[in-house]
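This part of the workshop introduces the protein records we will be handling. As an example, a complete record with its sequence and its structure tokens follows.
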Amino acid sequence: MSDEGEATVSRRPHAVHVRVRAGMSKPHNWVQLAKFCAVGGSGYVVNLCVFALFVGPLGTHHLVAATAAFVVAVVNNFWWNRHWTFDARAGRAGFQAPRFFAVSIGAFLVAATVLELLVSVAGLDELLAQAIAIAVSTPLNFVGNKIWSFAIEVSRD
């Protein structure tokens, strides 16, 4: 391969699995994961409270309740993750928010699928199924937000 070709290859971004593996060896990333889980814990409580309100007193379908709970919790989580977990206040919120919500919607769709399977197929209680579904989608949510929503721009000069 020519020097020009090798230079082009070396400038390509690494595959996601390579970046994730390298990131797992850095203590700072584990601190961020702990913060993300703390924020997620608050969002989890908010989500379950809104969900319980919608399926209980309001009597809505569990998927409608999950959607309402998601909307309320995701706003809470965006603020805390931007300001505390990833300390990304220097970035543009108008740029970060759409990415955060896209990742969150992806994680929500995974969680909604798990919720539906646990309620309709496995016969679990709706609130317990929602709690499990959120836990299942958390790793996807963290990795997506870490490497895309709140990624630090690095110059490759």
User: Anything to note?
Assistant: The chain has one domain: 28-149. Residues 50 and 59 are 12 Å apart (CA to CA).
